[in-house]
Amino acid sequence: MVTTRRTQQERRAQAEAALLDAAAELVVQHGVRSLTLARVGEQAGYSRGIVTHHFGSKQALLERLARATQAGFVPGLADLPPGLDRLLRLIDGYIGALGDVGMMNRAFLLLWAEAATASELAPIFRERDEAFRSDLRSDVAAGITDGDVRPDVEPGDVAIAVVGQLRGIGLQRLLDPHTVDTARLRHTVTDYWRRALRVP
Question: Closest Cα partner for 118 from 43, 136, 126?
Fold first, then answer.
């Protein structure tokens, strides 16, 4: 029987993934204010020392968690050029993904909502939201250049409205999942933006 030993890099990546999963679980169960390095280590089956070793501080852990929870929420967009099609696929995929919100995605939405009142989260999520809006602005601007989006549309306004709508739908889905029919809603919202933006 042959066993393969994991490299130090693989062990480090596995430990960091387990710690981030544990942090997400704690956020969902108890909120960000109850999150400590010691509790994360305990939840993941490690010592507090390993959490400090990997992240250094609670703030650094929160920053990594914010990035990890948002990464890959809508797969398959990286290969698409900016434009109306990419924007509509993002909207459709985002709402579709809310139909089965995993622990990491739930943690992201809860952290995002708490960022309004938690000073340690506000800068992290301002940066994450600006990156999201920047992508959306690029899609709208490219759509205008391509002739697919009306030239009188303001890309920044659309970006703010789309982020607010998607995150708001996500929070409603967390609060009352039976009320938000994502399978139907994804088509309704995507069609709304298609009609609102497309050149007549």
Answer: 126
Beta-bridge partner residues of 110:
none
Bridge partner list, 198: 149
In the numeric block, which tokens belong to residue 17? 């993934």
Contact 43, 26 (CB under 8 A): yes
pLDDT tens, position by position, 85-141:
999 999 999 999 888 878 888 888 888 888 888 888 888 889 889 999 999 999 999
CA distances from 42 to 23, 24, 152, 182, 189 (A): 10, 13, 54, 35, 42
User: Domains of the chain by range and CATH?
Assistant: 8-69 (1.10.10.60), 72-197 (1.10.357.10)
Cα 106 from Cα 24, distance rounded (Å): 8
Task: Please state, in angstroms and rounded to a whole number, the distance separating the CA atoms of residues 61 and 54.
Answer: 9
**The model's pTM:** 0.81
